[in-house]
Design brief:
The complex is a heterodimer. By secondary structure, chain A is mainly alpha-helical. Chain A is about 70% helix and about 10% strand. Chain A is built from 25 helices and eight strands. Classes of the chains: A mainly alpha, B mainly alpha.
Chain lengths: ~675, ~325
């Protein structure tokens, strides 16, 4: 039965595509048909993933076969694939429901069919990427995924920034896919087969410099999709440009495709990893986490802020993977398992809270028509439910206890600190330092999301649009409530998640059953004898006791409650006197000015001498990678293309001559071979 | 260590109550000692209790702009401080709820309180709240890595991140102190100054808005709301001192339930907290408050100390 589940899920999406095309003239019916089909497909792939995770046995099958050509495309869902399928479904299902409501009032009716088709193609291709068992199916699905995403980013194709974002995304994805193709061909030339199972045999046989080259190619190829700094430049452009339902899926679900590839390659996929690879991944993860959160903190566009925080969370997952690879390289697979489990747990959690936050942001943008924090505010009164759910998501992403972000960051800390006991001198000091960087990341994320939540929902509305906003419809709120419940559940029962992850880790090549960590209903435990353990349920009564005491203090105090305007030092407080998003982030921007390199411009105008009548202030933080890496690179490519123009004469005779010369060279070369 | 829920619950409630009852005394003690340094008489030792009682009886006045978040903030801050106390070993070498988690959970709960209060401070529409919240989150973010490195040093040398386990193992090891741990303790002391809002990071006595951090953040709170904030801050300060004493100076901690051992342990803890309070007073009385943008340098010192502690302990 389980063999037919993956084709069934894909068939749901194909039906969605077909129905969206047939019903394109009736937007309402088209919305329901396309996204209910998508929901069905996600539920099926969830069931498939969950059954593989529960049984621990891989499901294999054939997607399509052409006996005449002797070709068949198969799939294999092992526990790692299943983990990513489940993660994707947990996000895609609620977002599909949200899309039905969101498209109704945030999208011109004429675009419904387009979004419905591209959406279902995207889901189909992502599920195939996670399940492919050969290079061919993987690369086709990978490219289809890129194209469908680019189409969705350019949904609002009248706007030039949207088109540019889609183009940037395509260009960066090409770079990544190019590296992947090169890596796969290198492997295939070693093993003579395109099936993943045989390919990896070729890697273990390869000599060490070639293995390093392969690893770097894979790292770049998958790193682009995962938003790893410095390959992240497309992410803060493309994620916010897409409609909010697509942003949620891209941030919470699509970067996982890159992380999935990195786990496949890093966790024994290319044989036992080199210690340097683990260090490299840990370093890239730390840099992505710190830079991601710093840029998120300074950002005043709500959706861009969330996109930068995606880079941060991808970085945190990579820190876990890096610790895992260091453990594996040191011949301690049980420590490796801990690192990979921590990263994988964070991937699932990120899908839940980032999905929740993007959906909330989508509701805010739909209600107010703006993404600028400086034009929002006061929405807690107008949109109380959205506010409550967004606050929960903010607390989860800031890694605060009892919610899921804390549980997975806790596990990453353990992975970093446990590595300490095994390894050599360098790792002994690097790993705890990674822990300190993770602590900094997490604290900065808290500051960042205090800002994101408070500037959007608290105090007075800063614009007319914000003061007239209305609460989102139930169809938009229910999926957010589902994701919020996931954040709470994944945070309160980490032991159950970890138990599943122990099975996933044990299924990876080079790993086996381990005893470095264990989990159950009560919580999770690290190490024997216990190094540390976490049982959030035990602390819940203490928190409730504290809340109860606080409530009880209200009983002894005066009953009266008074409302009065806040004291404005003699003036009157208004939206203009409120603390702004820029001002909130200012101290940290100043502290980290070595990284931000902000440019400031202050000009004063004096109508009468010594009496300033007007001050103009402009502050800007440039994107360093665009400015100093990609800018020169783009110019170099364009200059080289200009030089090459000489041979592109536009004359037919010249082109015929080129063909002739090429033909002769080829003949000579082939003839020269024995 | 027992798994029976009833004694654990009683132990937890007793410890939380103990912290609640003693924390205002610590505040009073620090004020009294500071006054003595300045050759003033100062307020009574028990004045903080009277202040709390008075505030609890007053009606809270809340900003017309504020939403439910403003009301929730102090309550979550209070609850997180209470929950944090149940993770600390005090006079007996075990924490009531050490089954819940260790160092990381403790730090997480304190971060939860800070997050709740900073968010709520932005709700009134008054710029002071925003300024305080922004600065509090900045100082908190900069203190966090130093705090973690210092705690990691203690945890890794004992081989456990669980506070109860950690104190037990350190107590077994005896009184030998590694120089690395002295550095870690110094780093943690600097973090204590920052977290408790003490000079040179913040000045709890000032009401000059532009120079304050924590006080600016809670400027709009009044009545019972303010009482909760003040009380929780006091509990947090006492909890930090207990943590510092327990991790690095585990002399006299009772490892059995014998009454005389507990009595000695209680006296030892009081002496350690008194010593720490005296150090806080010395720092407060002999230093000026740092300009806000000099605070990162202090935090960098703490971070450097934490790093050196780790390097010394393990190389």
């Amino acid at each position: 039965m389980s063999q037919s589940l993956l084709p069934l899920g894909l068939a749901f999406h194909a039906t969605g595509v077909a129905l969206a095309l047939v019903l394109r003239r009736q937007p309402a019916a088209c919305r329901w048909a396309a996204f209910l089909a998508s929901l069905g497909g996600s539920l099926v792939s969830f069931v498939l993933g969950a059954s593989v995770l529960a049984s621990g046995r891989s499901v294999r099958g054939v997607l399509f076969a052409n006996p005449a050509a002797g070709m068949s495309v198969g799939y294999a869902v092992d526990p790692l694939s299943a983990w990513f399928l489940v993660t994707f479904a947990v996000l895609a299902a609620p977002v599909a429901v949200y899309s039905v409501g969101y498209l109704a009032h945030a999208m011109p009716p004429g675009r419904t069919a387009f979004v419905g088709v591209a959406w279902n193609v995207l889901l189909m291709s992502v599920e195939t990427v996670f399940a492919a068992d050969g290079v061919l199916a993987f690369l086709v699905a990978w490219e289809l995924m890129t194209l469908a995403t680019a189409a969705l980013v350019a949904t609002d194709h009248e706007s030039r920034p949207s088109r540019r974002s889609a183009f940037l995304y395509l260009a960066m994805s090409h770079l990544g896919t190019g590296c992947l193709v090169a890596a796969f061909f290198l492997l295939a030339s070693g093993s003579g087969s395109l099936a993943f199972a045989d390919l990896l045999g070729g890697a273990t046989a390869a000599s060490s410099p070639w293995r390093d080259v392969l690893f770097v190619l894979f790292l770049v190829g998958f790193g682009v999709k995962a938003g790893v700094v410095p390959l992240h430049v497309w992410l803060p452009e493309a994620h916010p440009a897409a409609p909010s339902n697509v942003s949620a899926l891209m941030s919470g679900g699509l970067i996982n495709a890159g992380l999935y590839g990195l786990v496949r390659v890093g966790a024994g996929g290319l044989g036992r990893p080199d210690p340097g690879w683990g260090m490299g991944v840990l370093l890239l993860g730390s840099v992505s986490a710190i830079l991601g959160v710093l840029y998120a903190l300074s950002e005043n566009d709500l959706k861009r802020l969330l996109a930068f925080s995606t880079i941060e969370n991808g970085g945190i997952a990579l820190m876990g993977f890096g610790a895992g690879m260091i453990g594996l390289a040191a011949g301690r697979p049980e420590l490796g398992a801990l690192g990979f489990a921590a990263g994988l747990y964070h991937v699932l959690n990120h899908a839940a809270f980032k999905g929740l936050l993007f959906l909330g942001a989508g509701g805010v943008v739909a209600a107010t028509g703006t993404r600028k924090l400086e034009e929002l505010g006061g929405l807690a009164h107008r949109m109380p439910r959205t506010a409550g759910l967004f606050l929960l998501g903010s607390a989860a992403i800031a890694g605060l206890p009892l919610l899921n972000g804390f549980a997975s960051e806790w596990l990453v800390f353990q992975a970093l600190l446990r590595g300490f006991f095994s390894a050599e001198r360098l790792t002994r000091i690097v790993l705890p330092l990674g822990g300190a960087l993770l602590a900094l990341t997490s604290a900065l994320a808290a500051a960042c999301f205090v800002k994101a939540f408070a500037m959007t929902f608290l105090a007075r509305p800063r614009s007319r649009a914000a003061s007239e906003a209305t609460e989102s419809k139930a169809l938009l709120l229910a999926p957010q409530a589902f994701l919020a419940a996931a954040c709470v559940g994944l945070g309160l029962f980490p032991g159950l998640v970890v138990r599943v992850l122990a099975g996933v880790a044990a299924s990876l090549p080079g790993f086996g059953p381990q005893d470095a960590f264990s989990g159950g209903l009560a919580g999770m435990t690290i190490g024997i004898p216990a190094f540390d353990h976490l049982s959030p349920l035990v602390i819940v009564p203490a928190v409730l006791f504290g809340l109860g005491l606080a409530a009880a203090s209200g009983l002894v105090s005066a009953r009266a409650r008074r409302r009065a305007p806040a004291w404005g030092c003699g003036g009157e407080l208004s939206a203009e006197t409120e603390y702004t998003a820029t001002a909130f982030a200012k101290p940290l921007v100043m502290v980290f000015r070595g990284i931000y390199r902000p440019t400031r411009e202050v000009s004063r105008f004096e109508s009468v001498r010594y009496f300033t009548s007007e001050v103009r202030y402009r502050s800007q933080i440039d994107a360093p990678f665009e400015l100093h890496v990609y800018g020169p690179a783009t110019r170099a490519v364009l200059a080289a293309a200009g030089q090459l123009r000489v041979i592109q004469a536009g004359s037919l005779h010249a082109y015929l001559a080129y063909v002739l010369v090429l033909g002769v060279i080829l003949l000579w070369w082939l003839g020269g071979l024995p | 260590m027992t798994t029976n829920p009833l004694p654990v619950a009683l132990f937890a409630v007793a410890q939380a109550t103990g912290f609640l009852l003693l924390a205002p005394l610590l505040r009073g003690l620090i004020k009294k000692m500071k006054a003595a340094f300045q050759l003033r008489q100062g307020p009574r030792l028990l004045q903080p209790y009277s202040d709390l009682a008075k505030l609890l009886g007053k009606e809270p006045v809340r900003s017309t702009t504020a939403s439910w978040v403003f009301v929730a903030g102090p309550r979550v801050y209070f609850a997180s401080a209470i929950a944090a106390t149940t993770l600390l070993p005090t006079i007996f070498a075990a924490a009531p709820l050490e089954a819940a988690g260790g160092i990381l959970l403790l730090v997480g709960l304190l971060a939860l309180g800070r997050f709740a209060l900073a968010t709520a401070a932005l709700d009134t529409g008054s710029p002071f709240g925003g300024m305080g919240a922004s600065r509090e989150m900045t100082v908190g973010a900069l203190a966090e890595p130093a705090l973690m490195l210092a705690l990691f040093t203690a945890g890794l040398s004992a081989g456990s991140l669980n506070l109860g386990e950690l104190v037990r193992r350190t107590a077994e090891r005896g009184t030998s102190i590694h120089p690395g741990e002295i550095l870690a303790a110094a780093a943690l002391f600097i973090v204590l100054l920052a977290e408790a809002g003490r000079v040179p990071v913040d000045n709890p006595a000032t009401h000059l808005e532009l120079t304050m951090i924590h006080e600016a953040m809670v400027l709009e709170y009044s009545g019972a709301d303010l009482a909760l904030v003040e009380w929780a801050s006091a509990v947090k300060e006492l909890a930090f001192m207990t943590l510092l004493a327990g991790l690095f100076f585990p002399i006299g901690v009772a490892t059995s339930l014998a009454p005389e051992a507990l009595a000695i342990s209680a006296l030892a803890l009081l002496a350690k907290v008194f010593a720490l309070a005296l150090m806080v007073v010395l720092v407060e009385s002999t230093n000026a408050k740092l300009r806000f943008f000099r605070v990162p340098e202090l935090m960098a010192v703490a971070l450097g100390l934490g790093f050196l502690a780790l390097a010394m302990r393990f190389f």
